[in-house]
């Protein structure tokens, strides 16, 4: 059964590039303020798409529409062809504010998604192993019994990531997931994310302010304008996977970075003028 | 040793107050007949406990307070929860609750006597009233500040409605229940004397009222101190329980 479907995956070359998510002329306003204006783009199976744009431009709002917490005023967000109805465990979300449960220890936070009814079919032992795995990957094992109030900002962020990964969603939606990390940890997290995506073939949407991070992690980078969000530019990143840090020093990487920075800076300046 | 020092610090303010009490008495600022000395008050408590019915009075009062608190909170928790949850319900009920809460319990005594008689029911009902209205406000003001982020997170992990309730909302509600209970307990003790005005048969409030009829200041003070003592003990127990259950909470003051 498993072998059969694996064969089919390999034979049909189209499967790998199937459109999974489609933003179709999506607009959103809060009261009189338009936040997203007529945005259209696709996310294909296995894509890693980054959104880069100035603060307050509407990136989180776009992610929330895919996560199922916000409905567009016009246009549609389609998930595997159907409009998004609400949140679901197929789309793991790492929120900008982390949302770590303060009343649960580190270990129980990571386990939370695994102990829900939808995951009860997984044997208890296996659930424990999965928890251990992500606790180790995020280097939280020494704090397994700690309360979140005693963790640093970076540790809380890693905890939120561990919890999202452990539930094994098909889509990973991450809202500035590495913002509170120091440069070294951040770089470690990039490698880790590469590893996980490589091993588990997930489809990802990342919101970030770092152009370098966006290029290094993504298969596509979308530059978002000052409010209301429009797509300024959508660039396919020409580097294959797996990637390693030597990429950061390559000519192509640096050219791409210079170009994208310029684009992003323009939008940041415009957003500044809005206030 | 550390615990002993801690205990000492807690006791110190009372020692200071008693010292001031003696000080005022000896300074001559107040007529000595109007301010019995502390040792006579404590002796009065002792004597009434050993020779009289004071222990029964204490027990009756404690029982009334606990019953009023129990029934009050049994209603305040679900009602406060619902009001806190729904903005529309809150807008409708908030003025009503503040109106009823503002009524002094003493004003309700005639009504309690007319409808409920002069037995235990009327007394407990007044305490229930006081506990409910103070508890429900704390409950819904706390609940209305519940961060929707945690519910969102649980939804993205696949939580069902029941799981959102049992795994997110209940743990978020517990701190408010404990705070509301503490507030309601304090208010119930503060209302005790009034509730025992219904008919001064027994209870600490009754002791105080009977003493006042004879202008027996020593016993009045004995009653007041006893009420304060038990209110403080119960509050300490609740605080201790909060600390056990709510270790995870960030403490604002510390
Ligand atoms: N629920 C809401 N009600 C009203 N306005 C909102 C709401 N959510 C977002 N906004 C407004 O919409 C705009 C875009 O918000 P959003 O959070 O999507 O920005 P962002 O691009 O994620 O910014 P940042 O990079 O700072 O996280 C902001 O001006 C914000 O104030
Ligand atoms: Mg945001």
TrEMBL record, chain A:
InterPro entries: AAA+_ATPase, ABC_transporter-like_ATP-bd, ABC_transporter-like_CS, ABC_transporter_ATP-bind, P-loop_NTPase. PROSITE patterns: ABC_TRANSPORTER_1, ABC_TRANSPORTER_2. SUPFAM superfamilies: P-loop containing nucleoside triphosphate hydrolases (SSF52540). The keyword Nucleotide-binding applies. Gene3D superfamilies: P-loop containing nucleotide triphosphate hydrolases. Pfam families: ABC_tran. Residues 21-251 form the ABC transporter domain. The keyword Ribosomal protein does not apply. GO terms for molecular function: ATP binding; ATP hydrolysis activity. Keywords: ATP-binding, Nucleotide-binding, Transport. Belongs to the ABC transporter superfamily. This is ABC transporter. It comes from Nitratireductor indicus C115.
From TrEMBL, chain B:
Its main location: membrane. CDD domains: TM_PBP2. PROSITE patterns: ABC_TM1. GO terms for cellular component: plasma membrane. SUPFAM superfamilies: MetI-like. Residues 58-238 form the ABC transmembrane type-1 domain. The chain crosses the membrane at residues 7-24, 65-85, 97-118, 124-143, 213-234. It comes from the Bacteria. This is Binding-protein dependent transport system inner membrane protein. InterPro entries: MetI-like, MetI-like_sf. It is found in: Cell membrane. Keywords: Cell membrane, Membrane, Transmembrane, Transmembrane helix, Transport. It is a multi-pass membrane protein. Belongs to the binding-protein-dependent transport system permease family. It comes from Nitratireductor indicus C115. GO terms for biological process: transmembrane transport.
């Amino acid at each position: 059964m498993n072998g059969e479907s694996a064969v089919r995956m390999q034979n049909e070359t189209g499967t790998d590039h199937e459109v999974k998510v489609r933003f179709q002329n999506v607009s959103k306003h809060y009261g009189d303020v338009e936040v997203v204006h007529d945005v259209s783009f696709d996310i294909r199976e296995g894509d890693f798409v980054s959104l880069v744009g100035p603060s307050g431009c509407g990136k989180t709002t776009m992610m929330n529409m895919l996560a199922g917490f916000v409905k567009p005023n016009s246009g549609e967000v389609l998930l595997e062809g159907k409009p998004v109805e609400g949140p679901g465990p197929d789309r793991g979300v790492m929120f900008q504010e982390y949302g770590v449960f303060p009343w649960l220890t580190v270990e129980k936070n990571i386990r939370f998604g695994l102990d829900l009814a939808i995951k009860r079919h997984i044997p208890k032992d296996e659930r424990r192993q999965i928890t251990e795995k992500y606790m180790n990957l995020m280097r939280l094992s020494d704090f397994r019994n700690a309360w979140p109030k005693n963790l640093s900002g970076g540790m809380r962020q890693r905890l939120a990531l561990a919890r999202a990964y452990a539930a094994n969603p098909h889509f990973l939606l991450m809202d500035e997931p590495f913002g509170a990390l120091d440069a070294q940890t951040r770089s470690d997290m990039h490698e880790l994310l590469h590893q996980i995506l490589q091993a588990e073939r997930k489809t990802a949407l990342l919101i970030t302010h770092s152009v370098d991070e966006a290029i290094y992690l993504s298969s596509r980078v979308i530059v978002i304008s000052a409010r209301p969000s429009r797509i300024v530019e959508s660039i396919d990143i020409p580097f294959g996977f797996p990637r390693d840090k030597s990429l950061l020093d390559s000519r192509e990487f640096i050219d791409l970075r210079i170009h994208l920075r310029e684009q992003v800076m323009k939008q940041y300046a415009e957003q500044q003028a809005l206030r | 040793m550390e615990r002993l020092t801690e205990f000492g610090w807690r006791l110190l303010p009372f020692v200071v107050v008693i010292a001031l009490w003696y000080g005022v008495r000896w300074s001559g600022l107040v007529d000595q007949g109007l301010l019995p000395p502390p040792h006579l008050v404590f002796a009065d408590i002792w004597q009434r406990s050993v020779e009289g019915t004071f222990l029964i009075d204490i027990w009756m009062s404690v029982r009334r307070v606990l019953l009023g608190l129990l029934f009050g909170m049994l209603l305040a928790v679900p009602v406060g929860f619902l009001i806190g949850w729904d903005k529309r319900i809150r807008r409708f009920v908030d003025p009503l609750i503040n109106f009823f809460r503002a009524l002094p319990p003493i004003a309700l005594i005639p009504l309690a006597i007319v409808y409920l008689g002069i037995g235990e029911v009327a007394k407990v009902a007044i305490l229930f009233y006081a506990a409910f209205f103070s508890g429900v406000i704390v409950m819904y003001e706390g609940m209305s500040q519940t961060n929707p982020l945690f519910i969102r997170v649980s939804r993205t992990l696949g939580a069902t409605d029941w799981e959102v309730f049992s795994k997110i909302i209940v743990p978020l509600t517990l701190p408010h229940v404990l705070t509301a209970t503490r507030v309601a307990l304090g208010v119930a003790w503060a209302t005790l004397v009034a509730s025992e005005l219904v008919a001064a048969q027994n209870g600490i409030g009754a002791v105080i009222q009977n003493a006042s009829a004879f202008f027996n200041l020593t016993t009045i003070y004995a009653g007041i101190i006893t009420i304060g003592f038990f209110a403080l003990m119960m509050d300490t127990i609740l605080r201790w329980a909060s600390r056990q259950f709510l270790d995870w909470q960030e403490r604002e003051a510390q």
